[in-house]
Amino acid sequence: MSDETPAVARTIDEIRARVAGWRAEGLKVALVPTMGALHAGHVLLVETARRHADRVVVSIFVNPTQFAPTEDFTAYPRTFEADLRTLAAVAAEAVYAPAVATMYPPGAATTVKVEGPAAVGLEDASRPFHFAGVATIVAKLFTQVAPDVAVFGEKDFQQLAVIRRMTADLDLAVEVIGSPTLREADGLAMSSRNVYLSPDERAKAPALHRILQEVAAALGGDPAAAVAKGRAAIAAAGFDLDYLELRAADDLGEPRPGVPWRLLVAARLGQTRLIDNIAV
Q1: pLDDT tens-digit map of 70-104
Q2: Any known ligand binding at 13?
């Protein structure tokens, strides 16, 4: 633990110089990409990164290209000073906080096209351009920071699968590590968007995880029937369901023997969209 504020790099040259200094000392570097509004789940990502590296860089960048036209990019919570205090408490060595113009300078015309786990009818069904934005910004962060390892939360499980596929396909020399979902005491997956829930919605929200667990427990019988029952239970609990699906954990295709399975869900409570998943 430390009270020392991490160094803040605003430009590509600044973060590259800092990482180069560590490399000259023979140190291993980890990157934790975030959009800020940090909570205990992000702290777990930093702690996971610390177990795999000598120095930890946390990027804070609200990426406009992963927001759909119907989503309010300007309303995403931004708490930079509080985020710095959070990162000081877990002794992150550096924060990379570039401006939008740094990441997408005038004339920028290249994006990363992703298919495979990015096109399986889950998040991509309602957010068709989301993963191209995610893949593009992560590829840029990987080339700018050049970490040895990068840590992502398993709550965004499809995102994790997309990043792993992209990293392998583009031969990026970064080890991608998934960190387990951190939950509130009542089971709700921690998320920066939970602040949008009204008190009544917050009281209802843990039902999503509870129903996932119930479905998982029933998969040993008729999996299709268990998932159908889960969909009905989510709707009955007051959610507007986007999807509840059972998929293969490696490529998010249809479940098949010999491959671990994942149960994934997305649903709305009022104006807040919640996602979650569990291994089964």
Answers
A1: 777 888 889 999 999 999 999 999 999 999 999 99
A2: no
CB atoms within 10 A of CB 69: 7
Confidence of residue 1 (pLDDT cuts 50, 70, 90): very low
Query: What architecture (CATH level 2) is domain 7-179?
Result: 3-Layer(aba) Sandwich (3.40)
Residue 248 annotated as lining a ligand binding site: no
Rounded to whole angstroms, the Cα distance separating 246 from 103 reads 36
214 labeled part of a ligand binding site: no
Domains 7-179 and 192-279 share a fold: no
2 annotated as ligand-binding: no
Locate the domains of the chain by residue range: 7-179, 192-279
CB 171 within 8 A of CB 16: no
Secondary structure in 3-state letters for 55-71: EEEEEECCCHHHCCCCC
Tell me whether residue 182 is annotated as binding.
yes
Q: Assess whether 42 carries a catalytic annotation.
A: yes
Provide the CATH topology of domain 192-279. Pantoate--beta-alanine Ligase; Chain: A,domain 2 (3.30.1300)
Percent above pLDDT 90 for the chain: 92
Task: Note the pLDDT of residue 63.
Answer: 95
The whole-model pTM stands at: 0.94
Average pLDDT of 39-61? 97
**pLDDT mean over 4-20:** 96
Indicate the pairing of strand 149-153 with strand 29-34: parallel
Structure tokens at 70: 């119907």
Q: Residue 35: which of 98, 126, 104 has the closest Cα? A: 98
Is 144 annotated among the ligand-binding residues? no
Other CB atoms within a 10 A radius of the CB of residue 1 amount to 6
Determine which one of 42, 52, 130, 209 is catalytic.
Answer: 42
